[in-house]
């Protein structure tokens, strides 16, 4: 099947801004080779086949604007395409219930709209908008720690027969009960927590795997991440980080021959440094032993634009969710989740996940 993929977005923050500005960048520069995605085409779907039909947020400065305007509103900071070069669109940003979406550190950056609508009013309104716009897939870019808001949106997808791509670490696709609900209704869900293109997680997983594959014993490891955008500011609130830490730590642990004791592994977002803006720095160290018990260690420093790092992967996740819809496959889409997400319901090695994904696209999963 071909045609446009109709997508609704929840959380019109920096990640979505980078995704849509990247697509526009390639539209405006057709002679540029499209780099930054793993697959140019997935079945017939290219990057220009995605149609963003609606957005949902809580920010009073974003709601009521078109999505192409709202992406430039504070505190967003991606500016790869100047605002006046972004085409007009009729796709609007609507209100989502705030629930637990806005943490204490971002309260002075994100001002939730005071419309007086309660959760039940909004639920009805949202379902009508999804129906009216023909959205087939909801992509969640909610902030870390938005457990209730994520569950609200997962339930909306179940009630409206809409596929769900969960880019953040509240567990839906990887939670047995939620996964079963999607299986029972035969609705695809891809998640949880997007694995960046060349991000901290994939680099750490790959090097840890290499150390084991070459016969060394890993004894301890850490990965520290710092950045300067709203995502990192929000993650200063330790209570919001429980599932993020599990997601990132398990993603590395799953690749080791022997699990490390909890006190021998530290993987986590660690601090907010305002002037870094969307630049993310990762510092990783592995310590272990080689032949004759001789110690070794390695350190890696990775510097990436956090938003360029995730957009291409989300574009693949959207297209794989659409292929699942085309093929009538529901429940957690394991090949896509294992390949593209940090916390799938079933972990695989990255090469295994890539092969499984290719089989899925070929219709042989
Ligand atoms: N490399 C990456 O960027 C990467 C990788 C993995 C996961 N993620 C996750 O993706 C998510 C989005 O990241 P971001 O940088 O765009 O964050 P962001 O803080 O820039 O954007 C979040 C948006 O969600 C909105 N929001 C808050 N509560 C809401 C609610 N209840 N309903 C609807 N909208 C709500 C905010 O107003 C904001 O516009 C985060 O959870 C992040 O951890 C990002």
Give the N-to-C terminal Cα separation. 18 Å
Q: Give the rounded overall mean pLDDT.
A: 96
How many structural domains in the coordinates?
Answer: 2
Strand content: 15-25%
In the CATH classification, which architecture of the largest domain applies?
3-Layer(aba) Sandwich
Physical arrangement of strands within the biggest beta sheet: 3-2-1-4-5-6-11
Q: Uncertain runs with pLDDT below 50, 5 residues or more? A: none
- The structural class is alpha/beta
Which CATH class of the largest domain? Alpha Beta
Protein described:
It is a single chain. The two termini are 18 Å apart. This protein has a 7-stranded parallel beta sheet, sandwiched between helices. It has a 4-stranded mixed beta sheet with strand order 8-7-9-10. It is built from 11 helices and 11 strands. The protein folds into 2 domains: 5-195 and 308-361, NAD(P)-binding Rossmann-like Domain (Rossmann fold), CATH 3.40.50.720; 200-305, Dihydrodipicolinate Reductase, domain 2, CATH 3.30.360. The mean pLDDT is 96. The protein is globular and about 65 Å long. It is an alpha/beta fold and 365 residues long. Strand 5, helix 5 and strand 6 form a beta-alpha-beta unit. Helix content is 35%, strand content 19%. Helix 1 (14-28) packs across helix 9 and helix 6 (200-213) packs parallel to helix 8 (242-253). The structure holds nicotinamide-adenine-dinucleotide. The site of nicotinamide-adenine-dinucleotide (NAD) has 37 residues, from helix 1, strand 2, helix 7 and helix 9.
